[in-house]
Amino acid sequence: MTETPQKKRKRRGSGRVTMKDVAKLSGVAPITVSRVLSGSDYASPAARDAVMAAVRELGYVPNRMAGGLASVHAPVVPILVPALRNAVFSDIIMGAQEHFFEHGLETLIGNTLYSISKEEHLTRTFLGWSPPAIMITGGTHSQATRDLLSSIEIPVIELMELVEKPLGINVGLSHAGAGYDMTSVLIERGYEDIAFLGTMPDRDLRALKRMEGYQKALRDKGLRGDGFVQFYDQPSTFQLAAQFADIYLENRAKIRAVFCANDVLAVGLLMECQRRGIAVPGELAIAGFNDLSIAESVHPRLTTVHVPRYEMGTKAASMLVEVLSGETLESPIHNVGYEIIEREST
User: Fold this and answer.
1) 63-110 residue pLDDT tens
2) Which of 11-15, 50-54, 320-324 has the highest mean pLDDT?
3) Are both 155 and 86 inside the same structural domain?
């Protein structure tokens, strides 16, 4: 039997927000709050909406360490990444894990699936375990997540990109800068009709920043407008990138080179060009981003942007250990940089 919320009431009092406070504000019983937060189906949609609204308003975090351990931080650091199958993030995780292990810390990995709402849910859930710190990918979060991370008294590390207003420690690189520099290198090599290929523009915000850098480079060099941009809504795969070959063949007079938002797209397009007899780089030059191991294994080898992913994870973990040890960081922001790797595909 489901429960329908009653009229909302204001919460009074102060101190740690409890499940009873959420129940009172949302107008449902504590057991209903528990069911909603555990993902149970035994709550009406109206009750679920009321509970989640109260959770956000009160900044409630379930206390998973209840029973005498609530004041003790577990030696486990959550790391939130947008994809577990992506070698980019597995390299970062590996770097962090190996450094943490040397200092008696373990990790708990959360996959946000490039979803801001999923990130909010995982953040709230992991904080309920009273971790000593939390690591999170990127600098774009829901307002509820920002409020939650701003209110806690543990270190917050934002990874992968340089953030304009970081919540704490920030370790990453400028994706717009990398996009600008790669495009500039292509222009210097004599390519002017350059396209940009990416995926999931509503979720992969770092790819959008690379595109912005690409477009700025075109404008600064006096080339056409915003360039030729193609985004697909699906995640990056070799098969998806192969579809761009059709677009190239239909617009070959407008496209002489392609800057791909990642190496998966670049390699997928390169292989499809080989299958169709499109010479790379003779007819179409291809560049990628990340410098995955496959970039050196394909023929021709792939021009790309090298990102020090393992080192990024190690540096973030090192800075966190310093803070947890009571040391003061020289700077909470660390730019890991990037390097343009020119190979035979361009």
Assistant:
1) 655 544 444 455 899 999 999 888 999 999 999 999 998 888 899 999
2) 320-324
3) yes
Same domain, 23 and 131: no
164 secondary structure, DSSP code: S
* Structural contact between residues 309 and 342, judged by C-beta atoms closer than 8 angstroms: no
Distance CA 5, CA 46 (A): 7
Same domain as 230, residue 301: yes
Task: Give per-residue burial for 257-272: e unless 16+ CB within 10 Å, then b.
Answer: bbbbbbbbbbbbbbbb
In a domain, 343, yes or no: no
- Residue 42's domain comprises 1-60
In this structure, what token pair is assigned to residue 45?
């949609």
Cis peptide before 62 (omega within 30 of 0): no
133 and 221 inside one domain: no
CATH of the domain at 92: 3.40.50.2300
Please state, in angstroms and rounded to a whole number, the distance separating the CA atoms of residues 41 and 48. Answer: 9
Question: In sequence order, which residues have a C-beta less than 8 Å from that of residue 304 and are 6 or more positions away?
Answer: 263, 266, 287, 288, 289, 290, 291, 292, 295, 341, 343
What is d(CA 78, CA 97) in angstroms, rounded to the nearest whole number? 11
Alpha carbon 96 to its chain's center? 16
Q: Indicate the pLDDT class of residue 28, thresholds 50, 70 and 90.
A: confident
Tokens at residue 335, please? 């730019």
Residue 157 tokens, joined: 């590390």
- Report how far residue 270's alpha carbon sits from residue 182's, in angstroms, rounded to the nearest whole number: 18
Treating both helix axes as pointing N-terminal to C-terminal, what angle do 309-324 and 87-102 enclose, rounded to 10 degrees? 30
